[in-house]
Amino acid sequence: MAAVTGLVGVALCAVFGLTLPDHAAKLLIDRGGLLYPFSVQNFMWVAFCIAAGELAARMRAASRELRQLRLGYLPEDPRTVLQADDLGPIYRRVREGGMAERCFLPRLISRCILQFQISASVEQCTTLMNATMDLMAHEIELRYAPLRYITWLIPSLGFIGTVTGIGHALAYAGEPGRYQEPTLLTEVTGRLAVSFDGTLVALVMAAILMFWQNIVETREELALNASGQYCLDHLINRIYVDKAGRPA
């Protein structure tokens, strides 16, 4: 995903460089810079496309998790009570669905059923489900670690571009005999404007990514919480154990 979206970012920079007028190119890609096409702005766009692609993938994953809740793995009739003989067919259906190792809900159901078949204890099933949900929440957090780094990296690149641009502008103004040129002020302020515009673009990119990331991460966390609630309501609280502690 990172390789593909990185190439998309490179292609986007190439399109900008070929089609944008000079004033827009200075704002977005610094086409007149000394290091172009290896400018800071181009690296920012590549990083932005990589992060956007990863966020799109995470959004699809969250939608897939929410769809699992509508597949009816467990009986949802409030009058239904699950006995030990009912768990085997449910387990097989979950495992045959192809998502038993990928999505939250099938993983929770299959682990809880296995735990109950081993221990015949609803309490141990509940403990296992809580531990599994904690691990899944940590798994979600780890998935967003690269995105958090990119969201931090883009403004950093913008500030690096600004500092570099200021240095180049001052070096240009300090060249011998340059102070006598009537266009010196216009040239220096133009270079400084490009540098500060790069920081502005970086901050806008970071704001967009942070907003999008919060939406997607919240959606995944809601999917996990809904999966745990579904498993608790329709599996843990439905299993019948007789007074002797044996599954019915």
Kindly list the characteristics that best describe this protein:
8 helices; 248 residues; 75% helix; rod-shaped; mainly alpha
Number of strands: 0
Strand % is under 5%
Q: Which term fits the overall shape?
A: rod-shaped
Q: Write down the secondary-structure element order.
A: HHHHHHHH
User: Helix segment count?
Assistant: 8
Structural class: mainly alpha
Could you tell me how far the N terminus lies from the C terminus, measured between alpha carbons in angstroms?
Answer: 49 Å
Describe this entry's structure for a reader.
- The chain is mainly alpha-helical and 248 residues long.
- It has one domain (1-248).
- It is 75% helix and 0% strand.
- It contains 8 helices and no strands.
- Helix 3 (40-68) runs parallel beside helix 8, helix 5 (104-119) packs antiparallel against helix 6 (122-143) and helix 6 (122-143) packs antiparallel against helix 8.
- It is rod-shaped, with a radius of gyration of 28 Å.
- The two termini are 49 Å apart.
- The mean pLDDT is 82.
Strand and helix layout:
Layout: H1 2-19, H2 22-28, H3 40-68, H4 84-96, H5 104-119, H6 122-143, H7 145-173, H8 184-234
Helix pairs in contact: 1-3, 3-7, 3-8, 4-5, 5-6, 5-8, 6-8, 7-8
